[in-house]
Amino acid sequence: MPQLTPFFFVNQVTFNFLFLTIIIYMFTKYILPRFVRLFKSRLHINNL
User: Fold this and answer.
1) pLDDT score at 8
2) Membrane spanning segments where (predicted)?
3) What per-residue confidence (pLDDT) applies to 6?
4) CA–CA separation, 26 vs 21, rounded Å?
5) Residue 23 and residue 9: Cα distance in Å, rounded?
6) Dihedral angle, C-alpha 33, 37, 40, 42, nearest 10 °
7) Residue 7 has what pLDDT?
8) Distance of CA 7 to the CA centre of its chain
9) Tens digits of per-residue pLDDT, 1-48?
10) In this predicted structure, what is the pLDDT of residue 1?
11) pLDDT number for residue 45
């Protein structure tokens, strides 16, 4: 059914956009601050 092809692509685009925003939010909120804290603590320990 070729008339459903645009809806399929729109569905893919919206799903991927939602997925990307969730991934970016998780990285900026939880994962990256943990790495920054880890590197800061390593720097602090090395300076002692």
Assistant:
1) 86
2) 12-32
3) 82
4) 9
5) 21
6) -130
7) 85
8) 26
9) 677 788 888 999 999 999 999 999 999 999 999 999 999 999 999 988
10) 66
11) 95
Single pTM value for the model:
0.68
Amino acid (one-letter) located at 43: L
Tokens linked to 5: 């092809």
* 3-state SS record for the chain: CHHHHHHHHHHHHHHHHHHHHHHHHHHHHHHHHHHHHHHHHHHHHHHC
Q: Which residue has the tokens 């939602």?
A: 18
Q: Which residue has the tokens 């909120």?
A: 29
Using CA atoms, how far apart are residues 45 and 37, in angstroms rounded to an integer? 12
Question: What are 25's two structure tokens?
Answer: 């939010």
d(C-alpha 48, C-alpha 44), whole Å: 7
